[in-house]
Amino acid sequence: MQNLNIPVKNLSDYFLEADSEELVIHSLQTDTRKDLQGSWFIALKGENHNGHDYIETAIRSGAQGIILSEGVAPQSIPYIYVSDTTEFLGHLASYWRDTLQPFVIGVTGSNGKTSTKDFIAHLFRSLYGGEAVLATLGNLNNHFGVPFTLLHLTPAHRIAIIEMGMNHPGEIERLSLIAKPDISIITSIAEGHIGHMGELDAIAREKASIAAGTTGKKIILHPELEQFPALVATLQKYSATGIHPVPVSYQKNDSTRQIDFTYKNCSASFPIPGEHQWKNFLLAVTAFSQSLPALTEQELCRAFSSISELVSPKGRMNRLVSGSLILWDDTYNANPASFLAALQTVGGSETAGVFGEMRELGEKSVSLHRQLAVDSARHLAKLVFVTDKEELIHAVREGWADGKGLAENLFVTFQKDCAKVRAFVSGSGIRQILFKGSRGAKMEEWIPCFQEM
Predict the structure, then answer these.
(1) Are 323 and 286 in contact (CB under 8 A)?
(2) For 63, which DSSP code?
(3) 6-84: CATH, from 3.40.190.10, 3.40.1390.10, 3.40.50.720, 3.40.50.1820
(4) Structure pTM?
(5) Looking at the predicted structure, is the pLDDT value of residue 392 above 80?
(6) CA distances in angstroms from 425 to 35, 200, 382, 430, listed in the order given
(7) What is the DSSP string of 97-139?
(8) In this predicted model, which residue has the larger pLDDT, 290 or 443?
(9) Given CB 3.0 to 4.6 Å as the disulfide criterion, which of 68, 216, 281, 327 pairs with 320?
(10) Biggest alpha carbon–alpha carbon distance for the chain
């Protein structure tokens, strides 16, 4: 994150005091374990850390300056004193975004954010090359990740695709006002984080608040999301217009499991399984076409020519082969809607599931885990469910029975006993195993149990 060259005086509206307004922020760092030479250290405060505790370490490590919001300002090196370092980070990133003026696409939603973001980035990189496109790395989509992504912008970037996540009210609006997307996408509304939000309407309202900072006031979404009155009302509040996906002619290829499609005389095959991923891709195509209204048919076809190279992001329906078994790694995260999508994609009489808990569901956790077990019984031959919570154990067993699942085909455990789990799953015509759970459940750690077979 070098060569920002931001004059401190240009940020005077956002700080309380500075050692000198003639200072320049060349680069920014938050981790004293990294090279701080030539960088300003910003003392951020998180749930489990306070960067102010490391100011002296940053000074000894060669920091060029310190940005802080509490304690005594250092006398040995330049400083900027602000009311809130996290808010100042957002202002700094927003200033940098305005300075470079890339075309920014914002992406939010309960499910599908990362896949949609990656699909958009792939299309633009096929057209402009990798150096012209910046996209959120990994899951850096929160109040720290979005600003730091924007601060990675360089003059070479023509396009920035910024993913925005949330688990508390007000976060998406705040992030959109920092990133100022030219156009935005809402991928889905589902019950992830409902423990913090309380109800689906609150989640819909939160996702729709990406319109607050969207300068072009166009929000791409599938028409079914307009069933949420809170979403429609929020878009109206910000004078934003909902844009539906562009019309694409397509058909499923049963032999390849791909989707063959044509858009504006350009034909290609979408290689990633799952109706939900196809819907994410349609959002990406729409964002691509809306961002470049003057795109020629030749340019469009050139961008589509590399779609066959698309792969799912890590932990999102990755197909692994282990002997005669196909292992589906969908362990990155989970909520009720993404679980159902995965079951509908690879479920069947030859499929078993190794599932972990869904987190952040609040008072609805028991009922939603019960429904997950019902759905699992209808889509799977066998289910291993990993939990040590008695209320969830009861809910899963009850739901499995209600879904007409046989008791002998359900195994609930918390101990990662690979031998027992393998013995339970094997020998019954199982050809596929789906691994899924919330991030905190770490279900990827169960995959090696079957790679050793």
Answers:
(1) no
(2) B
(3) 3.40.1390.10
(4) 0.85
(5) yes
(6) 49, 36, 7, 7
(7) HHHH--EEEEEE-SS-HHHHHHHHHHHHHHHH-GGGEEE--TT
(8) 443
(9) 327
(10) 73
